[in-house]
Amino acid sequence: MASNPMTQFNVHRIGPDIKIGTFDISFTNASLFMIISSVAILIIFNLGSKKNSLIPNKIQLLAELSYTFVSKMISDTAGLKAKPYFAFIFSLFMFVLFCNMFGMIPYTFTVTSHIIVTFVLASFIFIGVTIIGFMKHGFGYLKLFVPSGVPAVLLPLIVIIEIISYLSRPISLSVRLFANMMAGHTMMKVFGGFVISLGIVGGWLPLSFSVALTGLEILVAFLQAYVFAILTCIYLNDALNLHH
User: Fold this and answer.
1) pLDDT digits 0-9 by tens, 55-84
2) Cβ atoms of residues 94 and 46 within 8 Å
3) Whole-prediction pTM value?
Protein backbone atom coordinates (compact mmCIF):
# COMPACT_ATOMS: atom_id res chain seq x y z
CA MET A 1 0.00 0.00 0.00
CA ALA A 2 1.31 3.45 -0.95
CA SER A 3 2.35 5.73 1.88
CA ASN A 4 0.67 9.02 2.64
CA PRO A 5 2.08 11.60 0.16
CA MET A 6 2.03 14.28 2.88
CA THR A 7 4.50 12.47 5.16
CA GLN A 8 7.39 13.76 3.00
CA PHE A 9 6.73 17.23 4.44
CA ASN A 10 7.06 16.17 8.09
CA VAL A 11 9.71 18.04 10.06
CA HIS A 12 11.82 15.68 12.19
CA ARG A 13 14.10 16.64 15.04
CA ILE A 14 17.74 15.62 14.64
CA GLY A 15 19.67 15.40 17.87
CA PRO A 16 18.62 16.70 21.31
CA ASP A 17 15.53 18.74 22.15
CA ILE A 18 16.64 22.38 22.57
CA LYS A 19 14.23 24.98 23.93
CA ILE A 20 14.56 28.62 24.98
CA GLY A 21 11.44 29.40 27.00
CA THR A 22 8.49 28.42 24.81
CA PHE A 23 10.58 28.44 21.61
CA ASP A 24 11.80 25.13 20.21
CA ILE A 25 15.12 25.74 18.42
CA SER A 26 16.04 22.07 17.96
CA PHE A 27 18.02 21.07 14.88
CA THR A 28 15.69 19.48 12.29
CA ASN A 29 15.79 17.96 8.82
CA ALA A 30 14.69 21.39 7.51
CA SER A 31 17.71 23.00 9.21
CA LEU A 32 19.97 20.30 7.77
CA PHE A 33 18.91 20.88 4.17
CA MET A 34 19.13 24.65 4.50
CA ILE A 35 22.72 24.19 5.66
CA ILE A 36 23.43 21.66 2.88
CA SER A 37 22.04 24.10 0.28
CA SER A 38 24.12 26.97 1.66
CA VAL A 39 27.31 24.90 1.80
CA ALA A 40 26.75 23.59 -1.75
CA ILE A 41 26.40 27.17 -3.03
CA LEU A 42 29.61 28.23 -1.26
CA ILE A 43 31.55 25.23 -2.60
CA ILE A 44 30.38 25.70 -6.20
CA PHE A 45 31.14 29.42 -6.30
CA ASN A 46 34.41 28.98 -4.46
CA LEU A 47 35.56 26.38 -6.98
CA GLY A 48 34.09 28.39 -9.86
CA SER A 49 36.04 31.53 -8.97
CA LYS A 50 39.40 29.91 -8.16
CA LYS A 51 41.02 29.66 -11.59
CA ASN A 52 39.08 32.14 -13.75
CA SER A 53 40.34 30.46 -16.93
CA LEU A 54 39.72 31.93 -20.35
CA ILE A 55 38.08 28.62 -21.30
CA PRO A 56 35.92 27.89 -18.24
CA ASN A 57 35.27 24.45 -16.85
CA LYS A 58 31.70 23.37 -16.05
CA ILE A 59 31.68 24.76 -12.50
CA GLN A 60 33.16 28.10 -13.55
CA LEU A 61 30.67 28.29 -16.42
CA LEU A 62 27.79 27.61 -14.02
CA ALA A 63 29.02 30.33 -11.66
CA GLU A 64 29.48 32.88 -14.46
CA LEU A 65 26.10 32.13 -16.05
CA SER A 66 24.37 32.47 -12.67
CA TYR A 67 26.10 35.80 -12.01
CA THR A 68 25.22 37.16 -15.47
CA PHE A 69 21.64 35.91 -15.27
CA VAL A 70 20.91 37.62 -11.93
CA SER A 71 22.79 40.79 -12.92
CA LYS A 72 20.69 41.13 -16.09
CA MET A 73 17.50 40.42 -14.15
CA ILE A 74 18.28 43.24 -11.71
CA SER A 75 19.19 45.68 -14.51
CA ASP A 76 16.03 44.91 -16.48
CA THR A 77 13.62 45.19 -13.54
CA ALA A 78 15.13 47.62 -11.03
CA GLY A 79 17.80 49.56 -12.96
CA LEU A 80 21.27 50.68 -11.98
CA LYS A 81 20.16 52.01 -8.59
CA ALA A 82 19.55 48.43 -7.47
CA LYS A 83 23.12 47.25 -8.20
CA PRO A 84 24.26 47.76 -4.56
CA TYR A 85 21.71 45.10 -3.59
CA PHE A 86 23.05 42.55 -6.09
CA ALA A 87 24.70 40.38 -3.43
CA PHE A 88 21.45 40.01 -1.48
CA ILE A 89 19.27 39.22 -4.52
CA PHE A 90 21.88 36.82 -5.91
CA SER A 91 22.14 35.00 -2.56
CA LEU A 92 18.35 34.86 -2.28
CA PHE A 93 17.92 33.44 -5.79
CA MET A 94 20.63 30.80 -5.36
CA PHE A 95 19.38 29.76 -1.89
CA VAL A 96 15.79 29.27 -3.06
CA LEU A 97 16.98 27.53 -6.24
CA PHE A 98 19.25 25.10 -4.40
CA CYS A 99 16.61 24.35 -1.74
CA ASN A 100 14.14 23.63 -4.55
CA MET A 101 16.58 21.44 -6.47
CA PHE A 102 17.79 19.46 -3.45
CA GLY A 103 14.14 18.68 -2.77
CA MET A 104 14.01 16.86 -6.12
CA ILE A 105 16.47 14.22 -4.91
CA PRO A 106 14.76 11.12 -3.47
CA TYR A 107 14.73 10.83 0.35
CA THR A 108 15.67 14.49 0.82
CA PHE A 109 13.56 17.30 2.27
CA THR A 110 12.06 20.26 0.39
CA VAL A 111 12.61 23.26 2.64
CA THR A 112 10.57 25.61 0.45
CA SER A 113 7.47 23.40 0.73
CA HIS A 114 6.92 24.86 4.21
CA ILE A 115 5.05 28.16 4.50
CA ILE A 116 7.01 29.19 7.61
CA VAL A 117 10.28 29.19 5.63
CA THR A 118 8.93 31.05 2.61
CA PHE A 119 6.99 33.51 4.79
CA VAL A 120 10.07 34.41 6.86
CA LEU A 121 12.04 35.04 3.65
CA ALA A 122 9.18 37.09 2.15
CA SER A 123 8.69 39.08 5.38
CA PHE A 124 12.40 39.89 5.55
CA ILE A 125 12.25 41.16 1.95
CA PHE A 126 9.07 43.17 2.65
CA ILE A 127 10.49 44.84 5.77
CA GLY A 128 13.85 45.51 4.08
CA VAL A 129 12.28 47.05 0.97
CA THR A 130 9.96 49.21 3.10
CA ILE A 131 12.92 50.50 5.15
CA ILE A 132 14.86 51.26 1.94
CA GLY A 133 11.84 53.13 0.56
CA PHE A 134 11.49 55.37 3.63
CA MET A 135 15.27 55.92 3.85
CA LYS A 136 15.37 56.95 0.20
CA HIS A 137 12.25 59.13 0.03
CA GLY A 138 11.20 59.81 3.62
CA PHE A 139 7.44 60.19 4.02
CA GLY A 140 7.32 60.85 0.28
CA TYR A 141 7.39 57.07 -0.05
CA LEU A 142 3.70 57.14 0.88
CA LYS A 143 3.06 58.56 -2.61
CA LEU A 144 3.33 54.93 -3.72
CA PHE A 145 -0.23 54.49 -2.45
CA VAL A 146 -1.56 57.50 -4.39
CA PRO A 147 -1.44 56.69 -8.14
CA SER A 148 -1.25 59.72 -10.41
CA GLY A 149 -4.21 60.63 -12.61
CA VAL A 150 -6.88 59.07 -10.37
CA PRO A 151 -10.10 61.14 -10.03
CA ALA A 152 -10.52 62.66 -6.55
CA VAL A 153 -13.80 60.82 -5.98
CA LEU A 154 -12.10 57.44 -6.44
CA LEU A 155 -8.90 58.32 -4.57
CA PRO A 156 -9.91 57.05 -1.06
CA LEU A 157 -10.93 53.66 -2.50
CA ILE A 158 -7.79 53.38 -4.65
CA VAL A 159 -5.53 54.27 -1.69
CA ILE A 160 -7.15 51.55 0.45
CA ILE A 161 -6.72 49.01 -2.38
CA GLU A 162 -3.07 50.04 -2.85
CA ILE A 163 -2.34 49.70 0.89
CA ILE A 164 -3.98 46.25 1.05
CA SER A 165 -2.07 45.20 -2.08
CA TYR A 166 1.22 46.41 -0.55
CA LEU A 167 0.63 44.68 2.81
CA SER A 168 -0.30 41.43 1.05
CA ARG A 169 3.06 41.24 -0.73
CA PRO A 170 4.76 38.93 1.80
CA ILE A 171 1.71 36.64 1.79
CA SER A 172 1.47 36.35 -2.00
CA LEU A 173 5.25 35.99 -2.36
CA SER A 174 5.49 33.22 0.24
CA VAL A 175 2.32 31.32 -0.72
CA ARG A 176 3.26 31.21 -4.41
CA LEU A 177 6.56 29.44 -3.72
CA PHE A 178 5.25 27.18 -0.95
CA ALA A 179 2.08 26.12 -2.84
CA ASN A 180 3.89 25.31 -6.08
CA MET A 181 6.58 23.22 -4.40
CA MET A 182 4.14 21.40 -2.13
CA ALA A 183 1.65 20.64 -4.92
CA GLY A 184 4.33 19.39 -7.31
CA HIS A 185 5.96 17.08 -4.78
CA THR A 186 2.57 15.76 -3.65
CA MET A 187 1.66 14.86 -7.25
CA MET A 188 5.02 13.13 -7.75
CA LYS A 189 4.46 11.07 -4.59
CA VAL A 190 0.91 10.15 -5.65
CA PHE A 191 2.01 8.91 -9.08
CA GLY A 192 4.93 7.09 -7.48
CA GLY A 193 2.41 5.35 -5.20
CA PHE A 194 0.36 4.28 -8.22
CA VAL A 195 3.45 2.73 -9.80
CA ILE A 196 4.14 0.69 -6.65
CA SER A 197 0.48 -0.32 -6.21
CA LEU A 198 -0.09 -1.40 -9.83
CA GLY A 199 3.24 -3.18 -10.25
CA ILE A 200 5.32 -3.62 -13.39
CA VAL A 201 2.43 -4.63 -15.68
CA GLY A 202 -0.10 -1.94 -14.80
CA GLY A 203 2.31 0.72 -13.59
CA TRP A 204 3.84 1.75 -16.92
CA LEU A 205 1.32 4.57 -17.47
CA PRO A 206 1.72 6.27 -14.05
CA LEU A 207 5.50 5.66 -14.39
CA SER A 208 5.58 7.61 -17.66
CA PHE A 209 3.55 10.37 -15.97
CA SER A 210 6.02 10.35 -13.07
CA VAL A 211 8.98 10.80 -15.41
CA ALA A 212 7.25 13.66 -17.26
CA LEU A 213 6.17 15.23 -13.96
CA THR A 214 9.72 15.05 -12.62
CA GLY A 215 11.00 16.98 -15.63
CA LEU A 216 8.22 19.53 -15.21
CA GLU A 217 8.93 19.86 -11.48
CA ILE A 218 12.62 20.58 -12.14
CA LEU A 219 11.51 23.39 -14.46
CA VAL A 220 9.04 24.64 -11.82
CA ALA A 221 11.81 24.56 -9.17
CA PHE A 222 13.89 26.92 -11.32
CA LEU A 223 10.94 29.13 -12.32
CA GLN A 224 9.79 29.58 -8.72
CA ALA A 225 13.26 30.70 -7.65
CA TYR A 226 13.29 33.10 -10.61
CA VAL A 227 9.80 34.46 -9.80
CA PHE A 228 10.75 34.90 -6.13
CA ALA A 229 13.87 36.87 -7.10
CA ILE A 230 12.27 38.95 -9.86
CA LEU A 231 9.35 39.99 -7.62
CA THR A 232 11.94 41.09 -5.05
CA CYS A 233 13.54 43.20 -7.78
CA ILE A 234 10.17 44.73 -8.69
CA TYR A 235 9.45 45.62 -5.05
CA LEU A 236 12.95 47.09 -4.79
CA ASN A 237 12.33 49.09 -7.95
CA ASP A 238 9.21 50.62 -6.34
CA ALA A 239 11.24 51.57 -3.26
CA LEU A 240 14.14 53.08 -5.20
CA ASN A 241 12.36 54.78 -8.09
CA LEU A 242 8.93 55.39 -6.51
CA HIS A 243 6.84 54.58 -9.58
CA HIS A 244 3.22 55.31 -8.89
Assistant:
1) 677 888 888 899 999 999 999 998 888 999
2) no
3) 0.88
